[in-house]
Amino acid sequence: MKRLQAFKYELMPNGEQARQMRRFAGSCRFVFNKALALQKSRYEQGEKKLGYAGLCKLLTDWRNGAETPWLKDAPTHPLQQSLKDLERAYRNFFEKRADFPRFKKKGQRDSFRYPDPKQIKLEQGNNRLFLPKLGWLRYRNSRAVPGEVKNATVSFSAGKWYVSIQTEREIEQPVPEASSAVGVDMGIARFATLSDGSFYEPLSSFRKHEQRLVRYQRAMFRKQKFSNNWKKAKAKVQKLHARIGNVRRDYLHKCSTDISKNHAMVCVEDLQVKNMSRSASGTATAPGQNVRAKSGLNKSILDQGWFEFRRQLDYKLAWNGGWLVAVPPQNTSRTCPACGHVSAENRKTQAKFSCVECGFEENADVVGAVNILARGHRVAACGELAQSGHSVKQEPSEATLSGVMSGVSAVGIPRL
Ligand SMILES: [Zn+2]
User: Fold this and answer.
1) H/E stretch holding 352
2) Is 185 a catalytic residue?
3) Ligand 1 centroid – CA 346 distance (Å)
4) Contact present, 83 and 55 (Cβ < 8 Å)
5) Rounded distance, CA 111 to CA 69, Å?
6) Which residues surround the ion ligand 1 when the cut-off is CB under 5 Å?
7) What is the per-residue burial (b if ≥16 Cβ within 10 Å, else e) of 311-330?
8) Which of 85, 87, 168, 185 is catalytic?
9) How far is ligand 1, taken at its centre, from the CA of residue 359, in Å?
10) 58, 304, 395, 408: least CB-packed within 10 angstroms?
């Protein structure tokens, strides 16, 4: 089976290259925004949305036109890729996976992508990489790149440039080393509780850093905008943001690697994370209730990165030959695993489960995980309640297409 995987490295550009990369990222952003503005005005005038091919034609005009001659200096393919990105943003919107596409702002995820492997040269022995219109770039060679290079994405974050190199390689169909099945209950007090009773501490990295972040941001706003001190303060804020992101990612990866290595079948609740995190404020006609409490919970959910965690579990299990089963979440926290009695009364406190029918007592999160596992087994055995685990859909990031590409990760359709 084929595995697509991305490897990220810090770039060490010279001054000219750094300048060029800033310009290229700016050109790509410009093209994205211009195309988005165009689509919007077409829509307002009742015209049909232009397809990718139509946009590419326009791009050629823009590049050759007198208005934006500097677009010609940027490499063509990355500019076209930003049109592809816009296409995808629209598709995600139409398929209800995301909000309507927004204009890109400078300094927010500046990046551009080279899609053509024929134009990319990688010399790992010399720690250098060739990219069109940038030439040979040095990079911090922290690990080998296995497989065949498919594309490269250059991005800027917290003052540094990075390249993410996606490769494809043939690997043997994995046979899971573990044979056990486990249920995982995601929570606030504990990040994840397993049906075997073990659990992972909450992450809350954002909360921990939040006060510092607020302090830094206040300091920034007090400064004269665009002054040197303001720039310094801004860099501090961005650095802390990057740090929070790194801590979070590391933790999620550690947990998902752990679980996917030790179990062949992992059952999770089919949570609609997107809905949970969005519904609190409601709409103008139907304002949400209990907004403050919900936004607290929502913040926690996002903080914990459940969605990302699930995505990681999915592809890591596929890599190991295992699979992820998503089960419907109804009543998993209220059902007694001993006698099957379903009642809200069973859970008088957040932490403790105590069956009003048979007296069974256990930690509430463990009960949730046990119920999730039982449901997972039923789904696996006879397809009962089976539903696509991908119902919480997201565009797979470039790093993790493998599960989808290989077709191995059949969520909800386990191979027994
Ligand atoms: Zn009971």
Assistant:
1) strand 352-354
2) yes
3) 8
4) yes
5) 21
6) 336, 338-339, 341, 355, 357-358, 360
7) bbbbbbbbbbbbbbbbbebe
8) 185
9) 6
10) 395
| Tokens found for residue 394 | 């997201």
In order along its 416 residues, the chain shows pLDDT tens digits of 888 889 999 999 999 999 999 999 999 999 999 999 999 999 999 998 899 999 999 999 999 988 898 999 999 999 999 999 999 999 888 887 777 899 998 877 899 999 999 999 999 999 999 999 999 999 999 999 999 999 999 999 888 999 999 999 988 877 877 889 999 998 877 889 999 999 998 876 566 777 888 899 999 999 998 899 999 999 898 888 888 888 888 889 999 999 999 999 999 988 655 545 444 444 444 454 444 444 555 555 555 678 788 889 999 998 888 989 999 888 888 899 999 999 888 887 878 899 999 999 999 999 999 999 999 998 887 665 444 333 333 333 333 333 332 333 333 333 33
Name the active-site residue from 85, 87, 168, 269: 269
Q: Do the bridges between strand 181-186 and strand 160-170 make them parallel or antiparallel, or are there none, so unpaired?
A: unpaired
**344 CA → ligand 1 middle, Å:** 12
Rounded (10°) CA dihedral 304, 308, 312, 315: 160
> Which amino acid would we find at residue 412?
G
| Cα of 269 from ligand 1 centre, angstroms | 21
d(CA 350, ligand 1 centre) in Å: 17
Name the one residue in this structure whose structure tokens are 């539903």.
Answer: 387
Q: Which residues pair with 129 in a beta bridge?
A: 122, 137
Is 269 marked active-site?
Answer: yes
Please give the structure tokens belonging to residue 291.
Answer: 């907004």
Q: What residues does each domain of the chain span?
A: 2-170, 179-201+239-416
**pTM, whole model, 2 decimals?**
0.68
The Cα–Cα gap between 118 and 215 comes to 48
Ligand 1 midpoint to CA 354 (Å): 8
Q: Could you give the maximum distance between any two Cα atoms of the chain, in Å?
A: 80
Distance from C-alpha of 39 to C-alpha of 54, rounded to nearest angstrom: 11
Q: Specify whether the CB–CB gap between 393 and 95 falls below 8 A.
A: yes
